[in-house]
Amino acid sequence: MKIATYNVNGINARLPVLLRWLETSRPDIVCLQELKSPHEKIPENAISEAGYNAIWHGQKRWNGVAILTRGLEIEEVSRGLPGDPEDEQSRYIEAKVSGIRIGCLYLPNGNPAPGPKFDYKLEWFRRLQQHAQDLLKREEPVVLTGDYNVMPTEKDVYKPERWVDDALFRPEVRTAFKELLDQGWTDAIRKLYPDETIYTFWDYFRNAFDRNAGLRIDHFLLNPKLENRLKAAGVDREVRGWEKTSDHAPVWIELKD
């Protein structure tokens, strides 16, 4: 089974890129972030014609997450991250697909830091940690994937000295990510490629993609039930070079049946 995550940076603006990638990569399950579309304007027909079922949690102009499957039934579990019923930002959706519980997330950016946006990021991270701990108690395979807006280590960022005050790299955020892993989750990319320079995001400015001045902020976390099924992982880097593409590239894992 192939599972992918992709921050599309606007599903309607990037629809041709998304459909082209779905056709060439053919993942079984896809988690999308940053749809930037209200619920009623998600291009459901185009996704269906591409052979995918979909559930989504949209929001006008900002945020938005979705789970797509290629010919597989989706059992939606929840929309929104538990812990704050007043949080209206569309950043989390959870479903069961083929016996696997999938949490698709878009963690807040948090800039400028310090400030209210950074405080919201840390609080969202705290809620994620609590929910992740609850998920670990379940006797089923679980994956938490998406755009975490965190570079966990200096290995995950081009010229880390330039990012020390950024909300994606501040010590509080990196500590929160490590605490999440320490619960018992496995960072799939780092399990298979512990020492390689791997990026998933390249800014549109300063010719970042051609210079490979990137960040690794899109992650797959696997619970112990899934860790032993991991057989491959990678980044479809070439997609970042396509015309009118997202500033992220798709990231994927393959699991043993």
How are the strands of the biggest sheet laid out side by side? 3-4-2-1-14-13
Anisotropy-based shape: globular
Mean pLDDT: 98
Helix proportion = 10-25%
CATH class equals Alpha Beta
Low-confidence stretches: none
| The CATH topology | Deoxyribonuclease I, Chain A
Question: How is this structure best described in words?
Answer:
This protein has one domain (2-255): Endonuclease/exonuclease/phosphatase (Deoxyribonuclease I, Chain A, 4-Layer Sandwich), CATH 3.60.10. Helices cover 25% and strands 27% of the residues. Helix 3 (116-136) runs parallel beside helix 4 (171-182). The protein contains seven helices and 14 strands. The protein is α+β, with helices and mostly antiparallel strands. The mean pLDDT is 98. A six-stranded mixed beta sheet has the order 3-4-2-1-14-13. It has a six-stranded mixed beta sheet with strand order 5-6-7-8-12-9.
